[in-house]
Design a protein that fits this description.
By secondary structure, this protein is mainly α. It has a single domain, classed as Growth Hormone, Chain: A, CATH 1.20.1250.20. It has 19 helices and no strands. α14 packs across α16, α15 packs antiparallel against α16 and α15 packs antiparallel against α18. The chain starts with a helix and ends with a helix.
């Protein structure tokens, strides 16, 4: 942990960027559990939860191409600050839903919030490489992952308790203030000058995004690496829906004496908070242990991503067979160690090899594909869950099987990459970029 503390101490700009991420993520997880609670109050259909996650992910897919172009053309810091301020206003609009009970308004506000998140995320991913040195990229991304998971654990746990005891409205109010504080921290960051680009100004909008895709298309290694998260999210996206159903219907906290001690009536919400705590531990500690074991050279990062896909599949299978809440949490830990490793290692690979002038568009493409496959996975999980032909465990087994198929493909890619890594030109490409 010393290297992470050292990075925060000596790099003021990354420290401000990190602090903004801390408070923003803390509020996000308060928001998610409160949103899930509100939806389950307004609708009992499993597909209603799927619609919640679709409202969170589809805007990211739709707006990420434009966001990537903006991140490469305009002031990335200003884009992030504006996004934070507007998201605070939108989140406070959720309070109206609790008064009116209009589900459509909740979905509309969620779409607006995550359209703004689509503006924020590619810009922040590109900014990380502008405020830290190349040899610190793995450290910075591992710390970001650990921060994400820690805030997932803390935000989900306290968010579950707050939503269960004080109601969803309190969580929405706190979330709005975290966005404002995040914007203030990010406004303190000083960015290095971006690389100059010949003929900068481009063709505009989606044509610039297509130009970024052409860059990837001509570099198959990079194209495949940019699809790591998309492949994983096609499997783990369904868990967003399944976890809520398992928490509400199979393992509600009311089954345990702790619920009586805390006087919690909504045991499903509190159980979901505990599940997210374990998810936070897995996604945070997984990349750190994997990095210590495998190192940070690009071929080893590819191996780590392949191992991560296998762990995701095994973990989801474990969700379906777990007879107790404790074993369900163990399966969750295995699954999130895998997903966290895939997330961090793929980000580091792209930051190492993609030039700054293309970085925003490449991360936007990666993010767009991630949200597309995640949306497909979530919708399919909701439809299967509502079908009388499928049990909750059966849906989990289906996605575990899909994960195993993708694991085979990813392990095959690693083997192919390893055989070609002996080529000096390939090895130089990995370490020097384009």
């Amino acid at each position: 942990m010393q290297e992470y503390i050292s990075l925060l101490r000596r790099n003021k700009d990354y420290r401000y960027l990190w602090l903004g991420n801390v408070v923003s993520l803390l509020g996000d997880w308060f928001n998610l559990i409160a949103a899930a609670e509100l939806i389950t109050e307004l609708s009992s259909a499993g597909v209603a939860i799927s619609y919640l996650f679709l409202a969170r992910f589809l805007p990211l897919f739709a707006f990420s191409p434009l966001a990537g172009v903006l991140a490469d053309r305009y002031d990335r810091k200003m884009l992030m600050v504006v996004s934070d301020v507007l998201r605070a206003i939108v989140v406070w609009g959720f309070l109206v839903v609790g008064i009116t009970g209009q589900v459509w308004l909740f979905y509309l506000l969620t779409v607006a919030q995550f359209a703004l998140s689509a503006l924020f995320t590619p810009a922040r991913s590109a900014v990380v490489a502008m405020v830290v040195d190349r040899q610190e990229l793995v450290t910075a991304n591992a710390l970001d992952s650990f921060t994400w998971s820690t805030m997932l654990a803390l935000g989900a746990f306290f968010g579950g308790i707050v939503a269960a005891v004080f109601g969803a409205e309190t969580a929405f109010i706190l979330d709005g203030f975290t966005f404002l504080l995040s914007g203030w921290f990010i406004s303190r960051v000083v960015l290095r000058a971006k690389e100059s680009v010949e003929g900068e100004g481009g063709q505009g909008g989606w044509l610039d995004f297509v130009d970024g895709f052409r860059y990837l298309w001509g570099r198959p290694y990079l194209l495949i690496l940019s699809l790591i998260k998309a492949a994983g999210s096609l499997v783990w996206g369904a868990v967003n829906v399944l976890e809520i159903s398992f928490a509400e219907d199979v393992f509600p906290l009311t089954m345990f004496s702790l619920a009586e001690t805390l006087r919690i009536e909504d045991g499903g919400t509190a159980s979901l908070g505990i599940i997210y705590v374990i998810s936070g531990l897995g996604t945070g500690l997984g990349p750190l242990f994997m990095r210590r074991w495998l190192g940070s050279r690009p071929p080893r990062l590819i191996l780590g991503s392949a191992i991560g896909m296998v762990l995701v599949s095994v973990g989801i299978w474990g969700l379906g067979v777990a007879p107790t809440f404790g074993l369900f949490l163990l399966a969750t830990l295995v699954r999130t160690v895998g997903s966290g490793t895939m997330w961090v290692f793929s980000a580091v690979l792209l930051q190492i090899v993609v030039p700054d002038r293309y970085r925003g568009r490449v991360f936007a493409f990666e993010f767009a594909m991630l949200t597309l496959t995640q949306s497909v996975s979530i919708l399919l999980a909701g439809v299967l869950q509502d079908s009388p032909m499928w049990s909750l465990n059966g849906v989990a087994f289906f996605f575990a099987g899909l994960g195993m198929l993708l694991s085979f493909g990813w392990v095959s890619f690693y083997s192919w990459s390893r055989r070609n890594s002996s080529d000096e030109r390939v090895e130089a490409f990995w370490f020097a970029g384009d």
